[in-house]
Protein 1
Amino acid sequence: MKLKPLGNRVVVEPLTEEETTKSGIILPETVDKEKKAEGKVIAIGDGEKITKLGLKVGDRVLFGKYAGEEVTVEEVDYKILSDEDVLAVVS
């Protein structure tokens, strides 16, 4: 199944979190971790505002931690974000 966002929306697959900190401390599964606000663009809608952003499938973007709607398709988690939820492109 493919997701096709409508209007000024983009589908993003959030990047997975690493299990160790920068200093090398391994975090157990019981630690409450914050979700990263970075992900990979999977699909882009055809709205006027989203096309002005110049996003391409495969771009890495930053978005607000609690922005968008979370959906699960075929056991993969995605976020559907509006054009205003996309903060920056990581290059």
Protein 2
Amino acid sequence: MATEQGGSSSTEYIVHHLTHLKVGEGFWALHLDTLIVSTLLGAVFLWIFYSAARKATSGVPGKFQAFVELVVEFVDNQVSEVFHGNRGFVAPLALTIFVWVFLMNFMDLLPLDYPALIASAAGAHYFRAVPTADVNTTFAMSITVFVLIIFYSIRAKGLGGFGHELFTAPFGSHFLLWIPNFFLNLVELLSKPISLAMRLFGNMYAGELVFMLIALLGFTVAGLDLGSGLGFFGQVVMGAAWTIFHILIITLQAFIFMVLTVVYISMAQAHH
């Protein structure tokens, strides 16, 4: 099935699975698969936590409530260790980022061809089911974090204080140092959203490629034909091993994105 759906060769198969369902071309192209899946997963996230809040009891919690409370407490503890201001907005933001990014990453664990087959039955020839393997998604989230960094920095220091810091830190306030200070601070600011976006995108894109290579396993190794039963066995074993390892990756990447967001917002409020 691996080499039949995407084309007659391994290259065509990979290209097929890396092609988005989209409208438009170039910069103005909209990746419909990314928008659909991320929106649905956002709705799933809201439904899960709304259901837990609605059914919450003051007595002994059920397994579902206990799990949700565990996630909320875990995120709140992480935020409280890093962010020392009012957590009224930052803690819910961190929770949203952690769970939503995890759900989007989790789509990478679905059997590779199934989302494409379902989309094909609905008339869509191309469909990618992992929103975080799309650089548009990761940059959209990181740019949002960048806007929050600027907002919290201005709120803590004032517009004048923020501008003054751009030109006077870290080397000093002498006018000859204004330009070096500004460029250093500009590089520091821009590196935050870029590193956030590329770290998440790179890990999920690479994970997606590994699943594709495992799916294509089974032609010839050392003259032994593995295209039948033995090849299928190799796919199952390697796929299961990579899936177990990838569970750690998708969780870790969601955690890193959440923690770095909180760290960057906390740093934005600090004065040099």
